[in-house]
Structures are given as C-alpha cells and as structure tokens.
Specification:
Elements (H helix, E strand, L loop, with lengths): L4 E5 L9 E8 L2 E8 L1 H20 L12 E9 L10 H11 L9 E10 L5 E8 L9 H11 L10 H8 L6 E2 L2 E2 L8
Parallel strand pairs: 4-5
Antiparallel strand pairs: 1-6, 2-3, 4-6, 7-8
Length: 189
C-alpha cells in the first residue's frame, strides 16, 4: 500500500495544557478527576472534522483489522524558538484517533519528526501519514503471505490459529523461530 494522507494542523495545545484537573468525590473519597481543557476542546472541535474530510477527499483506506502500523512524518513550523515538538503530539494524535477515519487506535503510530522550522506568520504542523511496510513480525506483505500460505496446509489454520494471529499483531513467540512455525502440523485429508 503506497497511499498517504496529508494533513495540516494548527499548533495544538501542548501536553501541559491538554487536561485540567479538579477534585471530586467518588464512592465517598476525594479523587483527582482529569478533564479536557477548553483549549483542547476547541482544537478537537475543528481538527477532528477536518481529518474526516481529508481522509475522505484523499481516498484514505481505513484498516479494519487494527494491525497496520503507520508512520506519521512531522514538519513543524513553530511561531517561536522556545517550543518543544515532543509536547505537541498527544492532542494531535488523539484527535486523529478520535476521528475514526485513519486508524483504530494510536498504538499503531510511529512518529517521525523530520523538520522543525520557525514561521511567525504561518505557524502550523504538516503531517504525512503512510502505512509502515512491516506487518506484525513480518518485514513486508510478501513475507507474511509466504508464511500464511504454509499455514494453510497446517491442521491449526482453520481453527483460527492463535500463533498466526499473534504474529500478525507483532507478538514475539517461542513457537516461531526464523519465521518458521515450530507447531506446524500437516493437515490430514
């Protein structure tokens, strides 16, 4: 899949301004309760519909499986030199996730800051989202297909093989060594 999604975000609330906190009672005990700041709510109110619109306009294909990982390439144009890019990603990535148009969960995001510039007239963050070539423990789709083709001749395959499913999720298992399944059992006809 060589599709990419391009987004432009205003400078987002930093992680330091993402949440506010208040003390409330829960089951008779005082608890600290986090809630999104006004700044965060305003940002999400604008950015989430924009993400949905751009995903649709750019023909983005949503991965229903939730196993595809994505590179998010960042080019940042800060209004000042004293800003930190590491504080920007939380609100932006959460907003993209909440759009339900790009990925299921942000546990599949691989952030890559490519450039930081300073632009007092037009501060922004340009994002390019691309699917990662690897899938689970496999370096690419061809490697996964080769592994799964062999699985189709295994007695475990029709029973929804947990070893194969975990490998697609990227889980390291003792049952797989050098991309060979040690539990492979030829199917009886």
């Amino acid at each position: 899949m060589d599709k990419e999604l391009k987004l432009i975000s205003p400078i987002a609330p930093t992680v330091n301004h993402y949440m506010n906190y208040r003390v409330g009672k829960m089951r008779g005990k005082n608890m600290v309760i986090p809630y999104p700041s006004k700044e965060t709510k305003e940002y999400k109110k604008c950015f989430i519909p924009y993400v949905k619109e751009q995903a649709k306009l750019q023909g983005w294909v949503f991965d229903e499986t939730g196993t595809q990982h994505y590179y998010v390439f960042w080019t940042v144009y800060f209004p000042r030199v004293d800003m930190d890019v590491a504080n920007q990603d939380k609100v932006i990535i959460d907003s993209i996730t909440e759009s339900e148009a790009v990925w299921k969960d942000d546990n599949v995001v691989l952030n890559r800051v490519e450039h930081i510039y300073y632009d007092t007239k037009n501060p922004r963050i340009e994002l390019t989202i691309k699917p990662a070539e690897y899938i689970g423990i496999f370096n690419n789709l061809e490697e996964l297909n080769k592994f799964e083709d062999r699985c189709k001749n295994c007695s475990r395959y029709k029973r929804n093989c947990s070893i194969l499913n975990k490998a697609k999720q990227g889980r390291i298992q003792e049952e797989i060594n050098s991309l060979e399944c040690l539990k492979y059992n030829t199917k009886q006809n």
